């Protein structure tokens, strides 16, 4: 799980989480869907989702950068983009209660995936691991992820390990055909001795876990 090999090529992902005012979510999503193309003209968007179950009034979006100099240049360009400021930022900022961002790397044993088809739902799972980093819990965590992949009921999209933000945090993004398909597969997986053994080994290093069912916006590249 160590991120060293990925850091050498510079590519990282900025994960942004916004808490939107409860009465303003519809307005927020409509503005994003209408004007996000102004923002994506500057850098690559991986995906944009809103929460459906497990959290309320949250949106998650992931941006890809070649390196930190690339991000600095993009942020500078955005600061001078009057269309972005006037049509999008000035509209959505009053609708947002809180913003949080993290810098994360894909773990070296995981490439960013895609769903087999459009539609379906995504599951955003955040694990807070014990201090000590991947040297302590990386092997066990990878085994638990692979055990779920091997059941075949779910599709792994990405595993991200934080570099800035709350450390020892791992975000795992999954895709499923539907919430019911995910529920059936998960119940089946938890009766699989291989999954049970792998999870039992990995939870020794777990502090907390949150699962959120998220829905992609029409403007999201991952949908």
Low confidence ranges: none
Query: How much of the residues is beta strand, in percent?
Result: 25-35%
CATH class of the largest domain: Alpha Beta
**What is the 3D shape?**
globular
- Could you tell me the CATH topology label of the largest domain: Alpha-Beta Plaits
Distance between the termini: 27 Å
Helicity level, as a percent range?
25-40%
Strand arrangement, largest sheet? Answer: 1-3-2-8-5-7-6-4
Report the order of strands and helices.
HEHEEHHEEHEEHHE
GO cellular component, one term: mitochondrion
InterPro entries: Dimeric_a/b-barrel, NIPSNAP, NipSnap_domain
Protein name: NPS3A protein
Domain NIPSNAP: 13-111, 122-221
Features:
alpha+beta, 223 residues, Alpha-Beta Plaits, eight-stranded antiparallel beta barrel, 2 domains, 8 strands
